[in-house]
Amino acid sequence: MNLMKHLITLILFIVPSVLLSQISITGKVTDQSQPIIWANVALIDLDGTIITGGITDDNGTFKLNTKASGSYKLIISFIGYINFEKEITINNDLDIGTILLETDNTLDEVVITYQKKIIDQKPDRIILNVENNVTAIGGDAIDALRIAPGLRIQNNSINLLGRGESRVMINGRLLQLSQEDLTLYLKAIAASDIKKIEVITTPPAKYEASGNGGLINIILKKGQLNSWKNTISVVDNINTYNFLTFRNSLLYNKNKLSASLNINGTKGHSRNTENFQVYYPNSTWDIDIDSKDGEENLSSQLLLDYDVNEKTTIGLQYLGNIKTPSLDDTSVSKIFNTSNTLDSLLINNGNNKVKINSHLINLHSNTKLDSLGKSISVDLDYFTYNSNQNRNFITNSFASNNSFLGINAAANTLAEQNIKNFSVKTDIEHPNQFINLSYGAKVSTIKNSSDITLFNTISGTPVFDANISNSFKYEENNQAVYVSGLKKINEKWNIQLGLRLENTQTKGFSVELNETNTNNYTKLFPSFYASYENNENNSFSLNYGKRIERPRFRDLNPFRVIISSNTSSIGNPFLRPSFVDNFELKHTYKNKYTTSAFFNIKSDGASIIFTSDTDNSTQIVTRSNFFKQYSYGIEESFTFNTVKWWQSQNSLNVTGSKTVFTKNIGARPQNGIQFGINSSNKIAINESTKLQIDAFYNSSSKLGLFSLGETYGLDLGISKQFLDKNLQVAVLIKDIFNTSSLNNLESTVNNVKQVYEQNDNNRFIRLSASYSFGNKKINERKRNFGNEEETRRAN
């Protein structure tokens, strides 16, 4: 433990010396307003022999390597510009700086149009280009994620196909929130502010080892050099109710300062319906729940980067949310006897008022140590989350003839949660002639305080219930170091190896139970990546990574949460983390057809269990480590873009699992195969009018404790640009046939079968209008949050 702390300190605060070097030429190519992408760069001997060459990247930068010093000619060319030529003498690494290309006015006007693919397959990730996707226009980040390949968003959960819940990063910084709070948070980010979404199926050692559902990196837009742009949007989502969203996005980039400020506000209501059947030995309960969810929040995002000099950049990121969602719900429980005759009714009316404040602050710096790519970056992150909840409910009992029998239950619950997380991390890039080496360290601390107070109000006078009220304190400290090396064996083979070592100490204390639970463990997480490019048409990759799934804070909380008169939830302070071994094999043909296969092994798996008290006909939600699971699948995706006006991205997948229960929970595992198909189509009716048609189908499935019914959906959207493309209006009809919602989620524990379905505003019409002014040219910038894992597990 002490040795590890010393090692982390060494990596965090000491810059490594430069050990090895090679001769390289670097520079950046721009015109008067922006970087020039894909410009040709050539290094030529004075006798005219080409030594080496390349093209500029998305930032207009280039890097050439040569084995020998001497005098050369550097030539840079791009259609529509006058060639740049300069004789240079190379003895050591040379940074040419910024090269300005002048427009060739002797040419007729040349218009180059390049349309990005909707989805771009890379060996280690899948990239969704969100810009101009009609389905996402006027929507939020959740709407954008719904069209990302391999992701499924249902019941407030973001999952990677066949693997589990995904972690989400904004500009490379992870959001440390529970899945439920994460979806609320992402709804405050406009899809129009997103440049692209990266789905990293097997994260390398640089990232936290927690989570099995891969990483989702949402990359926000950034203004071009010496430019600014402001966009105002109004969006109306219409369902049974409706809610309005107002957004303003400002992008600014001048000299050494780059800034982005986004403000979003939402107000209105949406509808959520649920149905729940429970088959007890002596009765059957049929429960219908209809909720009116209040959508009211205000959020802001501020991103600042300042170039101190040519080598060092410092920056600040702030993400803040103030949410006051409300909930008015009515549930009707029909209770049938063994003869399937209605015996009685329970009608529950509840209202829930919540106030949530969250603030995420990041300070970061990046320093280039030389022109070869050596650099060191440091991130300081602070995250605070506060939630206050006030829920009242009353359950009235009625006979089968609707005559009033009395009050069955009534209560008022006050709940508060406070989370504070602080972390510091550093990442060092250290390429040399033998291997591209990277290493770093992170130290993180979390403090979570949860309090619940319940008053029984059945008599009309609140009476404190000490058996249910409780306070829970939780602390977690984590120290990690990692090292990763990328080696180019030859022109066909690339190998990357990584190791991450994490040491974790946890302490949970229940005030009312006077019970303390501690845990201390150190684990090593290896990762491996290999790619093979057989020829220009065929490439292969193989990935492996070991991951850990740590329990959420609320799952560790031992006190009982009363949901309704017959449903409660209990946490388990003895939950252990689960470990997963992930394997993935991928083949890409002509950059259009990609076949990927995966196989995962989860050990000591933990999940919720819907148990029942048959004597009292009540539902109890518990948590436990109780299974080992083998998951597998294959996916084929292909792009159709041979027709200029039609771009289509499609995928087919087959997934399956085998679950083995390692303890007796009164149930048998569900194992089966699922088939899925997705199609996303963008059709250009004319230059200013775009049509989007998206469709999907997922067959019924079985996994672990549960089986699930089939789902399918069809979305239709159209967008139109006016006023020289400054004004854009769009209409989206989501889930036209209302068939995409969760249904027939079934489990049987101790011979009690339960079937559940939910429709959370799945079908709606969205009308949006946005107006932009300023410079419309946009580029991107990535940056990671250092405390990504901790905020994900909040609440």
Question: Main attributes?
Answer:
single chain; 795 residues; mainly beta; seven-stranded mixed beta sheet
Protein described:
There is one protein chain. This protein is mostly beta strands and 795 residues long. The chain contains 5 helices and 47 strands. The strands form 5 sheets. The protein has a 30-stranded mixed β-sheet that branches. The longest helix has 12 residues, at 2-13. It is globular, with a radius of gyration of 28 Å. The relative contact order is 0.14. The model is unreliable at 9-21, 107-114 and 776-785 (pLDDT under 50).
Structural class: mainly beta
* Major sheet details: 30 strands, mixed
Secondary structure: helix percent:
under 10%
SS summary, helix count: 5
List low-pLDDT spans. 9-21, 107-114, 776-785
**Anisotropy-based shape:** globular
| Rg value | 28 Å
End-to-end Cα distance: 29 Å
Average residue-wise pLDDT: 83
- Total beta strands: 47
| Beta content | over 45%
Write the layout of secondary structure elements.
Layout lengths: L1 H12 L10 E7 L9 E6 L4 E6 L5 E5 L4 E8 L6 E7 L3 E7 L18 E3 L4 E4 L11 H6 L4 E4 L2 E4 L3 E2 L1 E4 L2 E2 L4 H8 L7 E7 L14 E9 L3 E12 L3 E13 L2 E23 L4 E24 L4 E12 L2 E11 L5 E27 L6 E25 L4 E28 L4 E21 L6 E2 L5 E19 L4 E18 L4 E19 L4 E12 L3 H4 L3 E5 L2 E4 L7 E12 L3 E21 L4 E23 L5 E16 L8 E17 L2 E10 L2 E4 L1 E3 L2 E12 L4 E8 L7 E8 L2 E9 L3 E11 L3 E3 L7 H5 L3
Parallel strand pairs: 1-7, 13-16, 33-36
Antiparallel strand pairs: 1-4, 2-3, 2-5, 5-6, 8-9, 9-15, 10-11, 11-12, 13-14, 15-16, 16-47, 17-18, 17-46, 18-19, 19-20, 19-45, 20-21, 20-22, 21-23, 22-23, 23-24, 24-25, 25-26, 26-27, 26-28, 28-29, 29-30, 30-31, 31-34, 32-33, 34-35, 35-36, 36-37, 37-38, 38-39, 38-40, 39-42, 40-41, 42-43, 43-46, ...
